[in-house]
Amino acid sequence: MRIRTAGVVTVLALALAASGCSGGGDDPETPTSAAPAGGKLVIWGDDKRAAALKPFAEKFGQENGVTVEVQAISKDQQTTFVTASQQGSGPDVMVGAHDWIGNLVQNGAIDPVQLTAEQLQSLAPNAVKAVTFNGQVYGVPYATENLALIRNTKLAPTAPATIEDLVAQAKKLKADKKASEILCLQVGQNGDAYHAYPLFSSAGGYLFGTTAGGDYDKNDLGIAKPESIAAFKKIQALGEKGAGALKRSITVENSIATFTAGKCAYLVSGPWAITDAKKAKIAYDISPVPGFAGGKPAQPFLGVQSFYVAAKGKNKALAQEFVTNYVTTPELAVALYQAEPRPPVLTAAYDQVKGTDPDLAKFVDAGKNAVPLPAIPEMATVWDPFGKAESAVIAGADPKTALTAAAKTISGQIKP
Amino acid sequence: MTALLERETVPAEAPEPSGRGGLAGPLVKIALLGLVAGLAVWAAFPLIAERAWPGLAVLLVATAGLFYLYAGPRHIPAKYLIPGTLFLIVFQLFPVAYTAATAFTNFSDGHRGDKQEAVVAIQTASVTRVPGSTEYALTVATTGDPATGALTFLVTDPASKVVSAGTPDGLTALPAGDVTVNAAGRVTAAAGYTLLNGGQASARSREITDLAVPTPGGAIRSQGLSRAYEGKAGRAYDAGCDCIRDTTSGKTWTADGEVGAFVAADGERLAQGWRVGVGLANFTRLVSDSAVSGPFARTLVWNLIFALASTGGTFVLGLGCALALHSPRVRGRALYRTLLVLPYAMPSFAMLLVWRDMFNTDFGLINNLFGLDVDWFGGAASARIAVILVQLWLGYPYMFLVATGALQAIPPELSEASRIDGASPWQSLRRVTLPLLLVALTPLLISSFAFNFNNFNAIYLTTDGAPFPADNPANGATDLLITYTYRLAFGGSGAQYGFAAAVSIFIFVIVAVISTVSFRRTRRQEEVYS
Amino acid sequence: MTKWLSRVGWRHGVALLALVFSLFPIVFVVSAALNPLGTLSSTEAVPTGASLGNFANLLSGTDFARWFGNSVLIAGVSAVASVFLSALAAYAFSRMRFRGRRVGLLALLLIQMFPQFLAIVAIFLMFSTITDLWPAIGFNQAWGLILLYLGGALGVNTWLMKGFFDTVPRELDESATMDGASHAQTFFRILLPLVAPVLAVTGLLAFIGTINEFLIANVFLTDTGAKTLSVGMYGLVAGERDNNFGMFCAGTLLTAVPTVLVFQFLQRYIVNGLTAGAVKG
Predict the structure, then answer these.
(1) Which chains, if any, share at least 3 CB pairs under 8 A with chain B?
(2) Least CB–CB distance from B473: residue in A251, A377, A384
(3) Are B341 and B464 in a shared domain?
(4) Is the pTM of this model over 0.80?
(5) How many separate domains does chain B show?
(6) Which of A322, A330, A326, A288 is nearest to A123 (CA)?
(7) Are residues A327 and A226 in the same domain?
(8) Secondary structure E strands in A239-287
(9) Domain tally for chain A?
(10) Which residues of A touch B202 (CB under 8 A)?
(11) Regarding beta strands B261-264 and B252-256, do their DSSP bridges make them parallel or antiparallel, or are they unpaired?
């Protein structure tokens, strides 16, 4: 027993001494939550963007004598950013779509950025409008994306002027056994509001009305209004019980793949589909999404990728420096374009690259009628019910019932 | 019987534990205690540096408790239970307690922080550039030591090229001879000032962004490290009336502690709110809001059926395969086992996505291979069958594994004895093997039931609740309570954590009651057999 | 022949049916992995132009090798540790009588049934503080994640083990105690070897569960080099509108490899059987 006690005491003393040394050694180096001597900037984005940003972030770090870390969040980027920021574990700079802005602002997660008049003029105006919320610019946009009609020129040499033309031509191809599907526009079992919107808007429907100032008005819900119901009737005519152009079995997984396999001549998708089309060696052309005959022009949604300054980041001054003064340079914009081909927002960069990439100008042209995704927080309530109403109607349900139910769900969730 | 007799003779052959191994135990114990002490000391230093006295106290109490427990000879059960329980408390109980506490608040998007944070956010968001003001080029400098000295903004007016020094007291122009300005307009040297480099500025980032140089029109603030602008805060907090006041229009929004937001007289709310306790409001919403409570009963019934069918089905399939392969006469058992376990080895979320695509009406493998034309996820019955089928595929290898292990534990003499007594194989299975198996496997069945009851991925990644009736896009035919809750809480206007927490508690009560009741009933069975 | 059929043949029949049921989606995944265009809409078993291109792209174009190493390390360590913790607790529940034993057992079962919607928020809350104080076990560190996973060590696995401990007769314990063994020596030297099958099964289940876990790993490991397989793979396909499905399927197959290897390694313990173990002593 005595040996035991003695043994315990000895080992404990040794352990204390050992950890005391290492602990003591750590002590002066362990600051409180301030950044270490060299300064650190943390940037978050999704996998693709993080990979594209890494070299530039390093360059920025070298020029300013700081360390820059670029990290990728694989899932739930927006929620993770807000939750982490709230707890103080968030990044300094966040990269994301512009429709996050409303939610980020109501959570106090991002700060407005003050761009000079000169900087604002060097950016495409529709992108600047997209990142403006309540009169303030909240993010620095760097790339845009919108849907367009990508068609297989071997099967369909000319661009259709209206959707009815498209359906007629495609039906002929189907009858000749040259294609097996009429239109590759993804719907899925639960619908896809983003892809349905161009046709919806062309037929006269609308989601939110606008106030006098041009902002979206959350109290003016257009979904159950007669114009939207009429629009859905037209969409139903294209659906499974009608022309068979819109089908729920065409989903995000197989829509592009069906086009690249040559099974349909027309694909409604964005710049991300071009890589696959090129890989499959399909001869393609890009044109705006056609609208209904006699209707308004089809308005795809404009998505704008932006950089945000986190309000609760540890190194806000450096974050502001990166976002407002570094991102707005042409070199970075061109390099980001090369990593991921989207039309750059910086006009100088766009002019520089459009010569080398003919698709770019066509996408921008397809987006000339595009309307920015609404950034108001209430938009989050719309996606799911609207999509489900779309898929129900495509399957043959009554548009009025579907839309009224969707409107009821949406308005029930919008706070006063 | 013979096996039991065999076991009784085993003790004579049991190894001699004392003697050579007598010193190893105490040595290991001393080493582990030393390790605990070392870790406690290592953990204590940052706590001391942060002056986190409560945390330090907890650490000391815990370490002392561990020492008392392990150095002394008493409290033997605790010695075995404490390691696992410690982790359980910290990483499982704490989230549960946190969830329970959140259920009584309005924690959601727009109400995540406290009131002070909301005020700061409102004020920062309202700072706008004074129209027509100068766009300054900025260099951050200090009059004293770069780490601690008072900060100054050296701003250059690009038009007049005049350099001024900005401090919280105001802006003063500097004589041109004292400063060197580069081509871009930024100050590169100034007499009496030390310029901060990137690293030094980062360390004082907070001070830099907080510094505002007052001017007649507003204040000059930094925008990064190389630019400054003159801005004016549009809204300010007035502590006297506990409200936010707009400096131009004079409109006020008063703090409403019940909803956690600033509300104006006309009902307009400012977007940035804060978290407040709302008592039982989340729970009553669950019950009173017809949009929420209406489909609840229907969803609960399907949820129960789904959990029962998944658990029961996988058990029957797994047991069947285990029984089939139980005989030593089957050659290649090892190979069969490895291949049969493969579905369980594949990452489940990946296979769920694959199954979803296999059920695609026009392009899916199932319809194409069997020449069917079923709209799987379009009809309620077919969608339900589909998800249960997927669950069977994913889950039966687990039951197969466990049943194989359990069958090994049953002495073969028992069933041989029953066969000698004249029972058919089926009868010996039903009367002898099955009850013994159930005794051993009941907790697993209960836990599998609970897992499948809350099996979010199984529905979310395959159907996401489809099909939805045309008149209710919020509640679908294959929705479980947990996916329904997820859609209600997180699909709407921002994440509503408080509401989700309340529904979590509700779901938990249901599952816990069912599990406890079944547990009590089978425990009575266990006592019969053990 | 009919005797063989009725005694053994039907067993093979059942097993083969089960095999077909189990394997056909996996065959599908294999074919998508070999398909250079990597899609699921094709329904051919062997795609035209089958190649290993997806595997090559996966290994060279992404950090797959590092994710693989991270996953195996994290899953391996947490599986071993949680089996150990669970066995300790199961021993106590099985062999000792103390106040709160029945309640404790039930509580273990019930705690894991709580829907963890807010787990992520709670984890951020906890680990923000932990990362500030002790960065070595904070965010982006494999050790922090392992500690977090150990929170789930006590649960239904403890039940499973307790059941097996119960089947080992008390007489073994008693005779060991009479020979002068302490409770720890009884546990480590006598009981643990005897319950090897259940340790193996639990270890395998814990390994599989951890290697597939991705919601928590997603928020915990943001550094690309620190990620686990499940998070990295999810990033390849989710939210990516241009489908990397071929690479995803290739990665899925590679992810299954460590699990199958662990299972092979543990197979002989699983089938060893309790009687055989008891006789060998």
Answers:
(1) A, C
(2) A384
(3) yes
(4) yes
(5) 4
(6) A330
(7) no
(8) 266-269, 284-287
(9) 2
(10) 35, 38-41, 66, 315, 317-318
(11) antiparallel
